[in-house]
Amino acid sequence: MALAQLGQAPISSLTQEDEKARRLNLFYEPVRDEVLRTHNWGFATVREPLALMEKQENCFLYKYPQEALFIRRVYQSSYKNTAFRELFHPKYRTRVLESTAPQAWAEYTRRVEDESQFDAAFVKSFSLALAADLALSLTGDNTLAAQILQKYTLSLDEARRSNMTENFAQTAQTDAFTEVR
After folding, report:
1. Tens digit of pLDDT for each residue in 126-139?
2. Residue of 125, 131, 123, 129 lying closest to 155 (CA atoms)
3. Which terminus of the chain is more solvent-facing, meaning fewer CB atoms within 10 Å of its CB: N or C?
4. Torsions phi, psi of 64, nearest 5?
5. Residues linked to residue 99 through DSSP beta bridges, in sequence order
C-alpha cells in the first residue's frame, strides 16, 4: 500500500534483493511502532497489573511491561489514576515505572508484530506514514512527500474520531445510571 501511494510498482517480498525492499525493511518497524504510539488503538491496548520490583520509602518500583511501547496511564484497581514516571534504574539495568500506588495497574500500547491483528484504520494510517517516510528516498519528490504526510494526518484524525465514537458507544451501554435503572 505504501508503494502504491508513491506510484511505485509492488514488490513480491520484503526479503527480495531490491532497493525498494531494502528501504521498506529499514523503515517498517520504526514507523509501525511510531504509528502505534500516536493513537490509543484498541487492538494494541493492554490493561494489566504491574509486577512489583521493589518498595522504596515513598514509592514503588514496577517492572516496565516488556511489550509496552507507550504507557498511557497507571492506576489502582479502583481505576483511579495515579502519578507515575518512567525511568532507567541502574541497579536493575532496565526501565522501570515509579508510582505511589501499592498495587498498580497499567494501560499501555503494546508492540503488535502480527499483522493479522491490525485494525483497518491502523493499516491505512501506517501505510501512509510509511509512504511519507519513503517518499523522498524513492521518488525525490518533495511535493508528493508533503501530500502523503497530509493524508497521513487526516487518516489519524479520522481514526481518532472513529475510536472516540466507538468508545462512547461502549461506555454508554454500561454506564452506572443505566445499570441502576
Report:
1. 999 999 999 998 99
2. 125
3. C
4. -70, 125
5. 60, 84
